[in-house]
């Protein structure tokens, strides 16, 4: 399952998030997954983790934070 999340074709959160994920380096996608799992354990749900991940306290590169923001926006768009 985790390997599928590294595959850019598996991200379906709208065009901007999908494009950001497709352009991201593998290291940034891995870090995004680490942050997401950390936040999911903290907040208890996938949706909440996706929305809160850009504000994580974990030290991440700006590129990772940008990817997290794009995915959060995609997740908010799906919730509407």
Topology pattern, helix = H, strand = E = HHHHH
Measure the end-to-end span.
27 Å
DSSP helix fraction: over 70%
Q: Which runs of at least 5 residues are low in confidence (pLDDT < 50)?
A: none
Number of domains: 1
Structural class of the secondary structure composition?
Answer: mainly alpha
- Tell me about the largest β-sheet: none
- The number of distinct β-strands equals 0
Strand content: under 5%
Task: Outline the structure in words.
The protein is mainly alpha-helical. It has one domain (2-79). It has 5 helices and no strands. The protein has helices at 2-6, 15-23, 26-43, 46-52, 62-79. Helix 2 runs antiparallel to helix 5 (62-79). The longest helix is centred in the middle third of the chain and has 18 residues, at 26-43. The radius of gyration is 11 Å and the shape is globular.
Summarize the structure.
The chain is mostly helical and 80 residues long. It has five helices and no strands.
Attribute tags:
5 helices, 80 residues, globular, mainly alpha
Topology of helices and strands:
Layout: H1 2-6, H2 15-23, H3 26-43, H4 46-52, H5 62-79
Helix pairs in contact: 2-5, 3-4, 3-5, 4-5
